[in-house]
Design brief:
The complex is a heterodimer of chains A (about 110) and B (about 110). With about 110 residues, chain A is mainly β. Chain A contains no helices and eleven strands. In chain A, strand 4 and strand 5 form a beta hairpin. Chain A is globular, with a radius of gyration of 13 Å.
Chain lengths: ~110, ~110
Amino acid sequence: SQKIEQNSEALNIQEGKTATLTCNYTNYSPAYLQWYRQDPGRGPVFLLLIRENEKEKRKERLKVTFDTTLKQSLFHITASQPADSATYLCALLSGGSYIPTFGRGTSLIVHP
Amino acid sequence: EADIYQTPRYLVIGTGKKITLECSQTMGHDKMYWYQQDPGMELHLIHYSYGVNSTEKGDLSSESTVSRIRTEHFPLTLESARPSHTSQYLCASSDLAQFFGPGTRLTVL
């Protein structure tokens, strides 16, 4: 069955460092991979989308990589700030489908 | 400004009551979704719609029903609320990425 794995343990880092979150998947051939941010009690907020034929995507302090051979995406936040503390979800979308599969998310805590 | 709205934000209600959770979007999207999420847990898709008069059940079995009479409106109804329905309900619309509303926190006593 299709499976998405995100680290269930919270990632704790110091302000100013680069945070790196991992999304691994199995039994899936996604056409698109997305990253979302979710704050407690709120709906997820879309951050970035990367296509299967793209290796890397950047937006301001965010960078996403997508390795379809390793079946893995890495999400980086450079110069992290306490305001970046949240849960980050990855989601996969097959070509021709509009129903994404969401991971459970990884909590990021940035300490001042 | 294009956005997606949910009302009410919080609802506490007694067992057996009928409730409707409202969701509206001004994004111009055809596709809309309802998810259920408990604190610290993953999102579960309960209903989706690809356009007017189109509704489908999602992966998670739900006793709720939905309707899609207008493109911008996708309400969710529980005919008889039970304590097991206590959860957060999130509405979303999409082109490729999903855009979520703020959610409704439902508590059934």
